[in-house]
Specification:
This protein is about 15% helix and about 30% strand. It is built from 2 helices and 9 strands. Strands 1, 2, 3, 4, 5, 6, 7, 8 and 9 form a 9-stranded mixed β-sheet that branches. The termini are far apart.
């Protein structure tokens, strides 16, 4: 009887070991909870399904963005963006948040931050997404950071990755 028990236990260990999914190389980038994007009325970033694995990495996805390389740093988040106004949810995506977006400040500009003369502040954020499966650019929107800088609720602290594009190098963290 005892050899049968050992055989069954060995089969269970093998079955469990073979059925587990491979480790996620981007686990530290995963958004862990749904949270509002600061300075927006209706945009949120939430987690992707636990079994989802990105087909492309953050550096490759960053290359698809408008103004890629213009900023020296950007947050890279593996998550899903949703809009609470129209109840839409995007696909799993690499979401990049870059600080110090510059807005028009000259007289007669269509959009101007109160004509203060300083349209480039660290609190001006630009949020862009790239489909983490296909690499397709999804779009972007502006946001405004809080006085205490916003940090996304990610699963860990990812290693800094250098994204080298034609316009320059950006550190993704």
């Amino acid at each position: 009887m005892r050899p049968r028990v050992l055989l069954v236990l060995a089969l269970v260990v093998v079955a469990v070991g073979c059925s587990s999914s491979p480790p996620d190389p981007y686990a530290a980038y995963r958004q862990t909870s749904t949270e509002d994007v600061p300075g927006t009325l209706d945009w949120q970033i939430g987690p992707v399904p636990t079994d989802y694995r990105a087909s492309i990495g953050p550096a490759d996805a960053y290359d698809e963005l408008f103004d890629a390389g213009d900023r020296k740093q950007a947050y890279a988040i593996l998550g899903q963006v949703s809009n609470t106004s129209d109840h839409s949810v995007g696909p799993p995506a690499w979401v990049f948040v870059t600080p110090k977006t510059c807005y028009a400040t000259a007289k007669g500009d269509l959009v101007s931050p109160g004509r203060t003369g300083n349209g480039c502040t660290k609190q001006n954020l630009y949020v862009q997404g790239v489909n983490a499966t296909t690499g397709e650019r999804l779009g972007g929107f502006t946001a405004f950071d809080t006085p205490t800088p916003w940090v996304p609720a990610r699963a860990g602290t990812p290693d800094v990755v250098e994204a080298e594009v034609q316009a320059g190098t950006t550190l993704l963290h």
